[in-house]
User: Which sequence fits this backbone?
């Protein structure tokens, strides 16, 4: 008689370049990967490509109800042992308001709703950005506290975003907010026996990364890459390996922290 085992569930939000690479890295025997994206067709395409059982769902990362529905659906399959947020928009793709809603508010909602279903012994990773690390030095402690602890629904109203017209600044602030929200979430997640960390990639060879490299700040981005110690962009698979490390047993004593994966680009600025 075949024993029916409860599957391990990995939920990946975002089916773009990094999200797709993460989903492929987490796929394997005994795992069901839930791929959630605003573009359901893209989520389905990624889900079909995986070497394991998979489910594709639509999600609006700016909606608490939508995130909660995906979280409930994942938990109904089995213990949710790995959750990853790789959804987001970049400065050339969206307005200031959309960047704040998707990249900052969406992350805050994700941390709360997925933190309510993650299994004991599980872990989560939020994909932030080296832009958050770059912007860290320009923030006051009260501003960092506000980004870290304000209710998700209040984040867009912070004075940091009042009359802000630069999408680059909005993106940097949102990604710094990601790093800080993860730090603040470590305690609540630990109460469930789970860990939460963030990864801050540099320039990655994805559709989003290429669009940024061809945008208004193309010269700066090319310079950062060219003058960085490694002198190249990252592949999505390289970021996925770091995410997998943080989700795995090898990182069992790592929580509430950010891992900068930028090929040394920020050292160039330093």
Assistant:
């Amino acid at each position: 008689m075949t024993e029916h085992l409860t599957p391990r569930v990995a939920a990946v939000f975002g089916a773009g370049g990094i999200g797709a690479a993460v989903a492929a890295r987490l796929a394997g025997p005994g795992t069901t990967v839930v791929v959630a994206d605003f573009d359901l067709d893209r989520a389905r395409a990624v889900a079909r490509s995986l070497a394991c059982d998979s489910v594709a769902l639509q999600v609006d990362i700016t909606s608490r109800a939508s995130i909660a529905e995906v979280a409930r659906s994942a938990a109904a399959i089995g213990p949710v042992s790995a959750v990853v947020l790789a959804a987001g928009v970049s400065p050339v793709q969206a307005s200031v308001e959309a960047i704040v809603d998707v990249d900052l508010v969406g992350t805050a909602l994700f941390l709360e709703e997925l933190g309510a279903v993650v299994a004991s012994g599980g872990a989560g990773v939020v994909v932030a950005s080296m832009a958050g690390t770059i912007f860290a030095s320009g923030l006051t402690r009260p501003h960092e506290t506000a980004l870290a602890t304000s209710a998700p629904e209040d984040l867009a109203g912070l004075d940091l975003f009042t009359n802000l017209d630069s999408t680059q600044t909005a993106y940097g602030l949102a990604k710094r907010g990601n790093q800080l929200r993860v730090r603040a979430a470590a305690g609540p997640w630990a109460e469930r026996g789970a860990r939460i960390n963030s990864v801050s990639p540099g320039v990655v060879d994805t559709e989003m990364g290429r669009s940024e490299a061809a945008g208004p700040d193309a010269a700066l981005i090319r310079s950062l890459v060219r003058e960085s110690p490694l002198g190249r962009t990252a592949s999505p698979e390289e970021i996925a390996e770091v995410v997998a490390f943080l989700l795995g047993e090898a990182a069992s004593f790592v929580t509430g922290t950010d891992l900068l994966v930028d090929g040394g680009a920020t050292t160039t600025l330093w």
